[in-house]
């Protein structure tokens, strides 16, 4: 079983500005409505701890591991439950656009038989990513006076 959520937003700022906001984990509490708490570092192998707050659902705490990171471009973290029961991998990607603009993408792959029982989570999770995207756009653009 497999489920995919993908979202994106275009930001009127250079990729470096988007990366700077995204990589400042302590500041997420100031702007991120979906993941209002995150600790750790974006380094491969590092463990993160985050609180995820999907709309209409109880906040959940996750402790994923950073699977890969390319400075200024992409971060992927993931976690699993007994490997064969459930696995989730989340990627945030920053792509340059013409005119010194940026496309920010989020992609979550949910895999394993447990996905069959997670149906109520997908809508609120996608809404959460969209809210996070918009909040990131506002934070970056306001920091530049855009």
List descriptors.
Alpha-D-Glucose-1,6-Bisphosphate, Chain A, domain 4, five-stranded antiparallel sheet, single chain, three-stranded antiparallel sheet, alpha+beta, 8 strands
Structure characterization notes:
This protein has 146 residues and is α+β, with helices and mostly antiparallel strands. It has one domain (2-144): START domain (Alpha-D-Glucose-1,6-Bisphosphate, Chain A, domain 4), CATH 3.30.530. It contains three helices and eight strands, in the order βααβββββββα. It has helices at residues 15-22, 28-31, 119-144; strands at residues 2-11, 37-39, 49-52, 60-62, 65-70, 74-81, 86-97, 101-111. The strands form two sheets. Strands 1-8-7-6-5 form a five-stranded antiparallel sheet, with helices on one face. α1 crosses α3. The longest helix has 26 residues, at 119-144. The radius of gyration is 15 Å and the shape is globular.
């Amino acid at each position: 079983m497999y489920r995919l959520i993908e979202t994106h937003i275009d930001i009127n700022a250079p990729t470096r500005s988007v990366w700077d906001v995204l990589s400042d984990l302590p500041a997420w509490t100031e702007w991120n409505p979906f993941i209002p708490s995150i600790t750790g570092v974006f380094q491969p192998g590092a463990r993160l701890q985050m609180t995820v707050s999907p709309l209409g659902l109880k906040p959940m705490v996750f402790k994923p591991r950073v699977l890969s990171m390319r400075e200024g471009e992409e971060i992927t973290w993931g976690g699993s439950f007994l490997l064969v029961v459930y696995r989730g991998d989340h990627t945030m990607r920053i792509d340059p656009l013409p005119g010194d603009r940026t496309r920010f993408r989020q992609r979550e792959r949910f895999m394993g038989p447990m996905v069959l029982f997670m149906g109520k989570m997908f809508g609120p999770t996608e809404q959460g990513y969209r809210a996070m995207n918009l909040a990131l756009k506002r934070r970056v653009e306001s920091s530049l006076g855009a």
